[in-house]
Amino acid sequence: MSSAQIEIQLIASIVAVACAIPGTFLVLRKMAMISDAISHSILPGIVVGFFITQDLNSPLLILLAALTGIITVVLVEYIQKTGLVKEDTAIGLVFPALFSIGVILIAKNANDVHLDVDAVLLGELAFAPFDRLLTGGTDVGPKSLWVVGSILIVTVTLLILFFKELKVSTFDKGLAASLGFSPAIIHYGLMSISSVTTVGAFDAVGAILVVALMIAPAAAAYLLTTDLKKMLALAIIFGIFSAVFGYWVAHWLDASIAGSITTVLGLVFLLVYLFAPSKGIIAVMYRERQQQTEVSLLTFLLHLKNHDELEERHVNHLNEHINWQKVRAKTVLDLAQKNNMITIEKNIVSLTKKGNEFTSKAINYIMTNEDTQIEDMKDDFFLFRG
Amino acid sequence: MKKVILLFIITLVITSCKNDVKNEENINKKLNVVTTTTMITDLVKNIGGNLINVKGLMGAGVDPHLYKASEGDVTKLVNADVIFYNGLHLEGKLVEVFEKMEASNKTPIALAKEINKRHLIGSEYFASNYDPHVWFNIDFFEKFAEKVTLVLSEKDPTNAETYRTNEKRYLTELEKLREDVESAIEALEPEKRILVTAHDAFNYFGKSYGFEVVGLQGLSTATEAGVKDVQKLAAFIIEKNIKAIFIESSVPKRTIEALQKAVNSKGHKVEIGGTLYSDALGSEGSNEGTYVGMYRYNIKTIVSALQ
Question: Which candidate in A4, A38, A70, A143 could, as Cys together with A133 as Cys, close a disulfide (CB 3.0–4.6 Å)?
């Protein structure tokens, strides 16, 4: 592996961490799309910068880009505060407007210059190692490594200093205000960090990858934990894993690095989405199925409680009388037997003492909706978990 | 914990695969040359022949404005001794990357720099920006060939003689091409020499042979044509009674088809004269896969459609 390849993975990993931190808070605040919005709305900043300097390579262009990013955030916040539209609508209103201002400026004044976001922000991970930072003639590493490294240090420092404030203002704005720190300041701080990270990371790795690195790891982590610290840690782990693994996928396929990393991010999220222990789609499906069976069980037990006649309690009766399919009847019978709620003698079903008590409690719960008596039942049955 | 994980990953990445790149370089003593567009790749292959390893970054049909790097391109660039590229922002930010490489031991050469700025077509609004599609002027492409020969001879003096022989042969080929092109265009009356294409790639071609060139999109293929552009151009086509407009191989044909519909809806009939190769050559191995073949194909298409 050449030093260029190591540097690419290093840059990708650092960007992954720098994006995962604000990304986690953005996902929790339902503002995830702000990174996508910023990647578009920086265009007018770049165009105006070009009009001033007439030079596509001037750092002023990137500076103005970051500034437009912050303007985007302020405008989004302003529209949101009116309370007339939702968060995502406000984002959707602001960034196309800013982007089209950029497009119109180009069309009117610079149609014959190759001026677009790609021409100013490098956005290509493959070339990052060749853009070196030289101080006094010595090569100190790729420029993007220094840029994203500095962004990461600032982000981590701010995260450690303001962790409590961020946490409280994310989950309970009212409490944050009453505790004496303004949620607005924290919000703008977070958004500014997101904006600077987006523009800086944009230059290093490209737009799509920045958006993916901000959202996918945080969204996957969100499905796995309800603890903020754990969510941050998981998002960072997912980000770094995807960056390094995605790089090697690109190596094997000789494909775009950013594309491969984004694909791996998507796959990581898909796996978590399917297999997460409590919020995953498979867990949810299992739970719903189980609840259905349990409702049937309860119906069956009630039936037994209300009927003493032998013919009503015959096993075959389940199929005929309550009109259940054979498979379902068997599942219900098995479940009831497993919990010692019924006994079957010569194909006649009878309630046990436990079964009798369970049924009374369940009926009582359904009638009064007081859940003090059924606490112990929650462990065995999904039905009573609310 | 985060830092520990990060450090762990970094050490893992650094220690796990420390293959010697130098080994590869030693095995391969031929000069490693990296090129950008297919035109330059073809030129360098003609002059270097089997004596050098030529690796082109952009394949056939790839629009240089929109080129995306693959992982393999990193290794190509790492191992490169010489890099030949067009310049004038044709390769986007890649140009800037190459300019920065000048400090390293690689030798990036912007071939368009060989052309005197006086001959370049500048931007109407911004003096320091030029039209990068210079290869359509055969004189300029000859300058490219001379520069490539010079650089290769300097880098690899033992084979300098062969490079010069190859150059001479190639320049004769270009000379023949120029004569054929001129005589083919002679057949077209001057008032019929109007070339309408998808984007502004043929300005140098137009300047050389007295064509009026109109591109539907601007210089950058990333911008979209506006409705007004289409309407204005449609009126222009009707006014000048133009018979055919052209698609480009590396630009989607949608916009040109929209233009054709706009013209036809006004009762004038304009045909799509065929596909021209603008920013990239045809697929490798085909006739249009070489600069000379591409140029002949373009001329044949243009002349037969406009006649």
Answer: A143
